[in-house]
């Protein structure tokens, strides 16, 4: 592991209403408290649906829970006649810290392209939110171009043309490994993360490359997380379905017990 603080991010996707969200957050927090989880060593964030954000924020504040709050999307617009959109300023008022940008499901089901991803990253920077920039290739792209080509291209576009680049996180999620049970090897994940970090160094600065956390996502479970995070190139994981299962998610958060640091 490097000096970068590992980040375990749970993407709930379109699951759980606001009442169910309370129960899950409480169970996660209680379970981690019972095992004396050190949030200074491993950061933990949850990404509920928009309708749950205010409820989760209130719970985190009232009970002084150390979980971080993230949103699953943001509008590129600041305000106006954009029905159904949610502005970055609104998220900031809810103490949201992180926002998923360019998740493969947004790209696939909502036709989000690289230009829109770049604009949403800009909205995050403007509102002092930390974008978690999601990149990854399909099976067809993997076979045609290799594992790193598409993620590097997507990240390059996402960071293009910003006047002020704030903090950001990169999540490498091979599309072929999301919800399929297929998993990239730890060596594959580390190699892609290394190339993404090199890209950040070329596009921004060596200092930013060294500070930026790069996550792996794609069928991550408590049984395989240690292998990914044994590499100094991988600084955490973006968890999908397993983030809805308390024992699985908290087991992932406790990955250090399986890793020799």
From TrEMBL:
GO terms for cellular component: cytosol. One of its GO terms (biological process) is glycerol catabolic process. Pathway: Carbohydrate degradation; glycolysis; D-glyceraldehyde 3-phosphate from glycerone phosphate: step 1/1. Its EC number is 5.3.1.1. It is an enzyme of class 5 (isomerase). GO terms for molecular function: triose-phosphate isomerase activity. CDD domains: TIM. Transmembrane segments: none annotated. It holds the Pfam family TIM. Keywords: Cytoplasm, Gluconeogenesis, Glycolysis, Isomerase. This is triose-phosphate isomerase. It comes from freshwater metagenome.
């Amino acid at each position: 592991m490097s000096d970068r603080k590992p980040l375990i991010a749970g993407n709930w996707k379109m699951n759980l209403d606001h009442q169910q969200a309370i129960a899950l957050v409480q169970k996660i927090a209680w379970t981690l408290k019972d095992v004396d989880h050190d949030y200074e060593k491993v950061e933990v964030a949850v990404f509920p649906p928009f309708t749950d954000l205010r409820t989760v924020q209130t719970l985190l504040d009232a009970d002084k829970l150390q979980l971080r709050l993230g949103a699953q999307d943001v509008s590129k617009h600041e305000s106006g006649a954009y029905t159904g959109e949610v502005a970055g300023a609104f998220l900031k008022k809810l103490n949201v810290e992180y926002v998923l940008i360019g998740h493969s499901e947004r790209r696939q089901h909502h036709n989000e392209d690289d230009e829109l991803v770049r604009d949403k990253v800009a909205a995050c920077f403007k509102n002092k939110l930390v974008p978690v920039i999601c990149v990854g290739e399909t099976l067809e792209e993997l076979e045609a171009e290799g594992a790193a080509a598409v993620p590097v291209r997507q990240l390059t576009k996402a960071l293009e043309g910003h006047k002020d680049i704030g903090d950001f996180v990169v999540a490498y999620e091979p599309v072929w490994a999301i919800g399929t049970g297929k998993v990239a090897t730890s060596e594959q994940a580390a190699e892609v993360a290394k190339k993404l970090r090199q890209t950040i160094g070329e596009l921004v600065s060596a200092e930013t490359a060294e500070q930026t956390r790069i996550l792996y996502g794609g069928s991550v479970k408590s049984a395989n997380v240690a292998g990914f995070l044994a590499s100094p190139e991988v600084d955490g994981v973006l968890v999908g379905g397993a983030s809805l299962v308390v024992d699985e998610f908290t087991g992932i958060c406790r990955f250090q017990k399986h890793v020799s640091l």
